[in-house]
Structures are given as C-alpha cells and as structure tokens.
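Entry:
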Amino acid sequence: MSRTQYFAELESVRRNLIEMGETTLALLDEALHAISAPDPTLAEKASELEAQTDHQHRLIHAQCLSVITRQAPVARDARLVTGVLDAIVDLELIGDYSYEIVMLSAPGRRRAPSQVLSQISDIGAKVRGILAGAIDAWNADGSPPTISPRPQEATIHAECGVLYEKLSRLTSGPGDASVFVDLMLVTRHLERIMRHGVSVAVQASGSMSTAP
C-alpha cells in the first residue's frame, strides 16, 4: 500500500465513523420522539437504523484491521485506528439502547404523567447534545475538541438518579405500574447512552491529537 493510499484509507475510516455516528444520532432521535409522541411507524424506522449501525460497525472494523495488517501505523495513526475501534463499539451500544427505548415506548401503553415525560425529554435532549458534540469532535480535522462533556455528565447522572427514584416511588401507587417500570428502564438507557457518548468524545480527543 502506497503512502497516498494509506492516508486515504485512514481518512475513509474517519469519515465512515462520522457517518455511523450520524446514523446512531438519527436512531436516538427516533427514541426521543417515541418517548414524547409514540408512533407505530417508529419501530420499523428504528429497526432499519439499528441494522444500518450494525453494518457500519462491521465495515469500519474490517477497514481498521486492514490498515493494521497491511501497514503498521505510526504512533499517531495507531491512536486514530484504536480510537475508532473503541468508538464504534460505543456507537453500536448507543444504537442498541436507543432501539430498546423505542420498543419500551410503543403506542398503546398507558401514558405517564406529562411532568414525568417532560423530565425524561429534557434529559434526553441533554444526552443528545453530548452525542452530537462527540460526533462533531471527530470532524475536527486534527484539532482536539475544546469543550469537555465531563461537567454535563455529572449533571445528567444526578438528574437521572433523581428521576429514577421518583419513578420507583410511583410504582407503589394504585393501578398498573408497568409504565413507570418501563420509564425506569428508559432512564437507565439514557444514562448509559450518555456515558457511551462521553466515551466517543474522549476517544476523539485522544485520537485526533496531533502529538507524535
């Protein structure tokens, strides 16, 4: 492999990661939509997007292995390849959790109080912001991201904890508690998505560094 081909392949890996991130972000959008406005068509859309993320994961993984086996990367390029390999795992898991949220928010189930749904939507919007920022960080063209998601991570973690406890208390009330149990799972999934989004951002910071 010539040096020109080698650098073109590395750039292709990075661009494919960004495309996978955009697919994952679209899947998260479907999940957040399902929470606020359940729609029977969302499950099919989410299933297609999840299948797409799985395909992109396999494609990028194969590309990275090809780069490693055909030409041993120097330190900077090795950071990029290993960072991508870690990031695509996080993105695939985000896709899995987003798809499960869509399934947990299927139409026909009892609706939770609007105040609870508003809290979940607010957390979801913040989680989406972290993921969008993480994907943008991979677009930095050699400049590491300047904004750390760590402060937001602590805030969202605390908000998820408060909401989870509130939902737990609501399960002991009269009537069918399944909706609150489902929303407890949704809250946990949003927190996990947030953690994986932070990880994608951290990988970008380490992988896009220009240090030798």
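Residues 3-36 form the longest helix (34 residues).
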